[in-house]
Specification:
The complex is a heterodimer of chains A (about 700) and B (about 120). Chain A has 4 domains: about 110 residues, PAS domain (Beta-Lactamase); about 140 residues, Beta-Lactamase (2-Layer Sandwich); about 160 residues, 2-Layer Sandwich (Beta-Lactamase); about 230 residues, Phosphatase 2c, domain 1 (4-Layer Sandwich), CATH 3.60.40.10. In chain A, about 40% of the residues lie in helices and about 25% in strands. Chain A has a 6-stranded antiparallel sheet with strand order 8-7-6-11-10-9. In chain A, strand 3 and strand 4 form a beta hairpin. In chain A, helix 1 runs antiparallel to helix 10, helix 10 packs parallel to helix 16 and helix 16 packs parallel to helix 18. The longest helix of chain A has about 50 residues. Chain B has about 120 residues and is an alpha/beta fold. Helix content of chain B is about 30%, strand content about 30%. Chain B is built from 3 helices and 5 strands; from the N terminus they run ββαβαβαβ. In chain B, helix 1 packs parallel to helix 2. The chains are: A alpha+beta (about 700), B alpha/beta (about 120).
Chain lengths: ~700, ~120
């Protein structure tokens, strides 16, 4: 404040100064003050003007905030002491000054002090109009600020209400006294109606209407900044004396200085508020980004996003989604749940008009954002079905809204609506950009979720085509099979390479069972899996044994290997012939994990060495033969079982054998289910690889 | 997963020693290391899998592909399987007589398995 005041007194034509501290050290002195006292800045004022009454007045002003004035014998001046924050404002008037001079000096001194406390342009203008207008006896007084080609009244008095509005904003136009003062930077003095007619013949009628005679127009400038002008008008002719002109020029300078300071203050506050808002929004976007990646359904994430937005970025937030040919409201959020319930009831009773201009449904369809800086009452009237509806929507009190589409890859998936009501805030173009950024993040999350769902559906469909829809009924055997794809978080979504199948052979009572595992995942692996399934089905029809069927399979795979070089498979193929005592089995394995036989509480491993198929022309395959007595089981599986990993390391063959030996499961389906459960539980529910299990039991 | 390359300037043998886990998640990185080691056309490239804690079918395929490239280029690729997980995997898949398998001692002293192929 002291700095502002020091600037302000610099414009004044009579001696002024400012002291600070209890010792009344001079901290500022204007030019007239220096002429009177010399350069005494930095020294106690009483060292220059030693007088007990002055010290007493300074002490009273400083310690008790009491103004006073003291006449001094030498130099012959009256020193006024006005309390200001952290100091005293001094003004010195020559002892021989007239009463009018003293009055002006005192008025300026008061104005100077008062302006230093006025923060807004209208408060500054009111002070100036009141102070100077009263002192001069002006019948009209006004302060106009300039913005481009327009002058806007900050404060006016004396115009009378009936003519006020046209004079609130007037264009800057050469050839008019106020404009000329603004454009030239030089005051315009019109002392009577005759001067009006001589200098402004076109304007004289208007300027002297209602009996006005004299007018003073004073420009307000600070450095190169043009801040507007002051105008004072009088109903009587008036010769503006040199002292009055000096006084008004000083008032204009003080006013300009104060307005400039207020403008800087406002600009600074705006900049700070803008920076804080930007920071808050950046943090909000970061928080929203984390929320949108949270492990929950995308619709739940979008509902949470709406909740997060209120009341931080809007009083209301809504999310709409395009679903087929409809646009559904997914979420409406407000910090007061009662209001949310109110809107839900309202929209149930009066369903939203899908064709409403700028509505979420329309924005969802067009993909174009809509901003309502103000929501005019006419819009509510237009949207209301009847009077009651109008009263209800008015009661929500929406003031401003922005509706942006959820755009991704050029498609609109819905809309995000932000609205202000009771906070009284307004959205602007900057808010549209912010809302669009938020909407884009939401749209990407939505799009990813939908792509994911689509991929899961495609993978499930393909996978289903690689596995039998149901196992056949085989007289004399009980069959049970399970397949579980690797957990999606481990693989993304891929069609697995595991396969099982059960096929009737050419001879009655003879069946082939196959379990295979193709190296890798994805389309190449899936194609190979399909090739294995169909080749084996075909070879079985030709009456070939397991070893020969695998040799044929190997050749078929090598033939088609160009598309997926060195992609091998492990296959176990068992030919089962059912008889009265159980079943006979011939089995070949191409590098597949060893089949296990559960005979009561004993478990045996079947040894059938063999080379993987699909990569070498010469593969070595050995046939194993064994019996399955009634109640015996053969357990086939892929390495997703034995190479499953949990906190205790690998699942391994030993654990598998132990489970089969000790499990209380009695039938094939129970054993298969128990094994699957154990493998899944061992990995805390997250499968590292696909798992296929096939259990064949000779019916007891 | 780490892959460390050691070169023997006298014999020209290059050895890539893998540790950790070689599976679908790490196979691309290791493939890059193997191809880098092949860039100098070493007469013998040893891929040491003996210290791996885990190797899956994609890791096995990596060795088969390297072996295939070496045959096509007139070079030699050998794998060191040691006595642990990698050995059991290659045995189970019936691949012991399909690849050059070198024992745990240094390659210079190795008697190469599968020389009859």
């Amino acid at each position: 404040m002291t700095t502002d005041l020091a600037d302000a007194i610099g414009y004044l034509p009579f001696p002024m100064g400012i002291t600070a501290t209890a010792d009344h050290v001079v901290v500022a002195l204007n030019t007239a003050g220096r002429t009177l006292l010399g350069d005494v800045v930095g020294r106690p004022v009483c060292a220059t003007l030693p007088h007990p009454d002055l010290l007493a007045a300074l002490d009273a002003a400083f310690h008790e905030a009491r103004p006073g004035s003291v006449p001094l014998p030498a130099p012959p001046v009256t020193v006024g002491c006005a309390p200001i924050r952290d100091g005293v404002l001094l003004h010195m008037t020559a002892a021989d000054a007239s009463g009018a001079e003293r009055a002006r000096t005192t008025a300026l001194q008061r104005l100077t002090s008062a302006l230093s406390g006025a923060a807004t342009p209208s408060a500054i203008a009111r002070l100036v109009v009141t102070s100077a207008g009263e002192l001069l006896g002006a019948d009209r007084a006004g302060v106009y600020s300039r913005a481009g080609a327009m002058l806007t009244a900050l404060h006016r008095t004396g115009w009378g209400t009936e003519v006020s509005p046209p004079f609130d904003r007037i264009p800057v136009q050469r050839g008019r006294p106020l404009s000329d003062a603004v454009l030239t930077g030089v005051p315009v003095w019109l002392e009577n109606a005759e001067q009006w007619r001589l200098r402004y013949p076109d304007m004289a009628v208007a300027g002297t209407a209602s009996g006005f005679q004299a007018t003073a127009c004073l420009p307000m400038r600070v450095e190169d900044r043009d801040l507007g002008a002051l105008v004072f008008s009088f109903l009587v002719p008036r010769a503006f004396s040199a002292d009055e002109r000096e006084y008004l020029t000083a008032v204009a300078a003080l006013c300009a200085q104060a307005l400039d300071r207020a403008r800087l203050l406002v600009a600074e506050q705006d900049a700070r508020a803008g920076a804080e808002r930007q920071l808050d929004r950046t943090m909000f976007l970061a928080q929203a980004g984390r929320l949108l990646q949270a492990p929950m359904s995308v619709e739940h994430r979008l509902r949470r996003l709406a909740d997060l937005a209120v009341p931080r970025v809007a009083d209301w937030c809504a999310v709409h989604l395009v679903r087929n040919d409809r646009v559904d409201r997914l979420a409406v959020a407000h910090s007061d749940p009662e209001k949310v319930a109110f809107v839900a009831r309202l929209q149930e009773r009066y369903p939203p008009d899908p064709d409403a201009d700028g509505g979420a449904i329309q924005v969802s369809r067009t993909g174009r954002p809509v901003l309502f800086p103000e929501i005019p009452d006419e819009l509510l009237v237009a949207g209301a079905v009847d009077e009651e509806h109008l009263a209800l929507i008015r009661s929500i009190g929406l003031h401003s809204a922005v509706v942006v589409p959820l755009l991704v890859r050029g498609r609109s998936l819905g809309a995000l609506t932000l609205a202000h009501a009771e906070s009284g805030q307004r959205f602007d173009e900057g808010d549209v950009a912010f809302a669009e950024q938020l909407a884009a993040n939401a749209a990407i999350a939505l799009d990813n979720a939908r792509l994911w769902e689509e991929q899961v559906a495609i993978a499930d469909t393909l996978q289903a085509a690689l596995l039998p829809a149901a196992l056949p009924d085989v007289p004399g055997l009980r069959l049970a099979a399970h397949y579980r794809a690797q957990s999606a978080e481990n693989s993304g979504i891929q069609v697995g390479g595991d396969l099982y199948d059960v096929v009737a052979s050419d001879a009655p009572g003879r069946w082939s069972v196959v379990v295979a595992d193709v190296c890798g995942k994805g389309p190449h692996a899936a194609a190979l899996t399909a090739l294995i399934r169909h080749t084996i089905r075909a070879e079985i029809g030709h009456g070939l044994g397991p070893v020969e069927a695998l040799h044929r399979l190997n050749r078929a795979m090598l033939h088609g290997a160009a598309k997926a070089p060195w992609r091998f498979a492990t296959v176990v193929h068992a030919e089962i012939t059912v008889d009265a005592e159980g079943a006979s089995v011939r089995l070949a394995s191409a590098g597949h994990p060893p089949p296990l036989l559960r005979r009561g509480d004993r478990v045996e491993s079947v040894t059938a060495p063999g080379t993987v198929v699909g990569v070498y022309a010469d593969v070595v395959l050995a046939e194993a033969t064994f019996r399955l007595d009634r109640g015996d089981m053969m357990v086939l599986y892929t390495d997703g079982v034995t190479e499953a990993r949990g906190v205790d390391g690998f699942y391994g063959t030993e654990r598998l054998i132990r489970l089969l030996r000790t499990s209380t499961a009695r039938q094939a389906d129970e054993v298969a289910a128990a094994l699957l459960d154990d493998v899944i539980g061992f990995q805390q529910g997250r499968l590292r690889d696909d798992v296929a299990i096939l259990v064949v039991e000779a019916t007891p | 997963m780490t892959a460390t390359q050691g070169d023997d300037p006298r014999s020209g043998t290059v050895e890539v020693v893998l540790t950790g886990e070689l599976d679908i998640a790490t196979v691309d990185e290791v493939q890059g290391r193997i191809e880098a080691a092949e860039a100098g056309s070493p007469p013998l490239l040893v891929i040491d899998l003996s210290q791996l804690e885990f190797v899956d079918s994609s890791g096995v395929r990596l060795a088969l592909l390297a072996d295939d490239r070496a045959r096509a280029a007139g070079r030699r690729v050998a794998v060191r399987l040691g006595t642990g997980h990698a050995l059991r995997v290659f045995q189970a898949l019936g691949l012991m007589d399909k690849l050059d398998v070198v024992p745990l001692s240094a390659p210079d002293d190795a008697t190469v398995d599968g020389a009859s192929r």
